[in-house]
Amino acid sequence: MVAGGVGGARFLRGLTAAVPADEVVAIVNVGDDLTLHGLRICPDLDSITYWLGGVVHPEQQWGRADERSTVSEELRRFGTEAWFTLGDRDLATHLHRTSRLATGAPLSVVTDEIRRAFGVEVRLLPATDDPLETRIRTRDGRDLHFQEYWVRERAEPRVAEVVFAGAAAAEPAPGVVEALLDADAVLLAPSNPVVSVGPVLAVPAVAAALRATTAPVIGVSPVIGGRVVRGMADRLLPTVGAEVSAAGVAAHYGTLLDGWVVDTRDADAVASVSATGVRCVACPTLMDDVEVAAALARTCLELAEEVGR
């Protein structure tokens, strides 16, 4: 499975209710990762870990439950610009990661240590251990790290271009290519197609493995009724020439897809997507509870079995 962010975490929660968790491999976006206050922070890997580990903040849907931000508040005492708030419990994860990386351990090894510490059975693989950074070039001439654009600037600047710096030279993390080639089915989570799934596909050997795998590739639309469920995909899809619609995202993924799942509110897209040769079905996709997410996962797996035949 290729995933990133809250959409990926929520879908994985449903998938692990539908199939044994230890049979699932998630290849996770690292384009959002940043170094702040000397700490290496991996937002998507951590969000997925906290969701599957049952410790995610229930209202925010990211970060730790029962969290405080004492350290971030104290940093402001010293005049530090604390635009990216780090919770006290969350800091322990970043401290462990940073210290392990400093000893030479690759991100994939450290990620495995962290997910095991939280009792997560799903195997989590960063797309790459190499530097890869999502940059947002704005129409007013700035070049921002994705987190600067999303958190500090609140996604307000108009976007001219999205760049995956370092992706062309990046190699897949150990196990990523093998997971794609050996899979029974490859699922693209309803994550942001541009900045969550996009950085994963920007690693050349990952994209090549997706095209080479004999497993059916099934995607889930992150757009419901012409609107994104959360995030800023509606602002970024036009920058890559994609329409903000269920059919538009399917067209963006193009020939990677064998199957596409849309929400029942987008049932009118089924015929147009199917006409492109991609098998398309509609079902409820708003994953407000685990039962809906599990039913969605089962629909994806049944579609994979159908197109695989």
Automatic annotation (TrEMBL):
Coiled coil: none annotated. Keywords: Magnesium, Transferase. GO terms for molecular function: LPPG:FO 2-phospho-L-lactate transferase activity; magnesium ion binding. It comes from the Bacteria. SUPFAM superfamilies: CofD-like (SSF142338). Gene3D superfamilies: CofD-like domain, CofD-like domains. This is 2-phospho-L-lactate transferase. The gene is cofD.
